[in-house]
Amino acid sequence: MREIVLDTETTGFRQNDGDRIVEIGCIELVNHVATGNNYHQYINPERDMPDEAFGVHGLSEEFLSDFPVMADVMEAFLEFIGDDTPLVIHNAEFDMRFINAELGHLGLETLPMSRSIDTVRMAREKFPGAPASLDALCRRFEIDNTSRTLHGALLDAELLAEVYLELIGGRQQGFELAQDKAGETIAAIESQRRDPRPHAASEAEQAAHAAFLEKIKDPLWTS
Q1: Is 151 an annotated catalytic residue?
Q2: Structural domains in the chain (count)
Q3: pLDDT score for 189
Q4: Per-block mean pLDDT, blocks of 10 residues, the chain (223 long)
Q5: CATH assignment at residue 66
Q6: Within a domain: residue 205?
Q7: Cα–Cα distance, 69 to 43 (Å, whole number)
Q8: Distances in Å between the alpha carbon of 122 and those of 25, 116, 117, 127, 169?
Q9: 216, part of any domain
Q10: CB 82 within 8 Å of CB 56
Q11: Where in the sequence is the domain holding 118, given as residue range(s)?
Q12: What's the per-residue H, E or C state across the chain?
């Protein structure tokens, strides 16, 4: 089963007011295991970068001006995510709105919300009343997010992939490791096994045993 963990960075919160996507990061999972096949792209939004957004992700208008515009990267993005691969997104409604707005600008068919898996909703259902931000979930699951000084689409997608695996029960790596170690221990014990001792008593041992029995008066096994 193939899944795509996805995150975006934008110029703001309101796509209807002209805010645009400036970065997309995707992590491919197959059977809940990261394959190393990722997609990452910075995008020139063809507009200024508000200070509030810059403070979140640190992507300046000058920096982004050297990258392609959305019209030039959309085909590669759509090819990577495929036609019906589930999209694992933290606060899926936000990212899906922006992706569909960009698709609309290009006259392309939008993506159905039913295709998304919202990890915020998953976290709130599993831990009612607890914080459900990505940082909070990293702390809960002891996932190292110390490199997340600023938001970044690929880094956040990588962290979200780990959070998602924990939300669905984890990969039980410890259990598999325990099995491997148990096998190694058994093999080591078997390799040290000694040859069995002979169990038949010698003539001298039989004679000593008979002499010992003669000394016992009224043994229990004769009563």
Answers
A1: yes
A2: 1
A3: 39
A4: 97 94 97 96 96 93 96 98 97 97 97 98 97 95 83 93 94 43 43 52 63 62 52
A5: 3.30.420.10
A6: no
A7: 5
A8: 21, 12, 8, 9, 12
A9: no
A10: no
A11: 2-174
A12: CEEEEEEEEECCCCHHHCCCEEEEEEEEEECCEEEEEEEEEECECCCCCCHHHHHHHCCCHHHHCCCCEHHHHHHHHHHHHCCCCCEEECCHHHHHHHHHHHHHHCCCCCCCHHHEEEHHHHHHHHCCCCCCCHHHHHHHCCCCCCCCCCCCHHHHHHHHHHHHHHHCCCCCHHHHHHHHHHHHHHHHHHHCCCCCCCCCCCHHHHHHHHHHHHCCCCCHHHC
Q: What is the pLDDT of residue 105?
A: 96
Would you state the structure tokens that stand for residue 69, as one six-digit string?
A: 């515009």
d(CA 178, CA 34): 22
Would you say residue 161 lies in a domain? Answer: yes
Place of tokens 């069995």: 196
pLDDT of residue 124: 97
Structure tokens at 211: 């002499």
The pLDDT of residue 218 is 63
Q: Pick the catalytic residue from 90, 151, 199, 209.
A: 151
For residue 5, how far is the Cα from the chain centroid? 9
Residue 148 contacts residue 155 (beta carbons within 8 Å): yes
Q: Is 32 domain-assigned? A: yes
* pLDDT for position 69: 98
C-alpha to C-alpha distance for 181 and 186, rounded to whole angstroms: 9
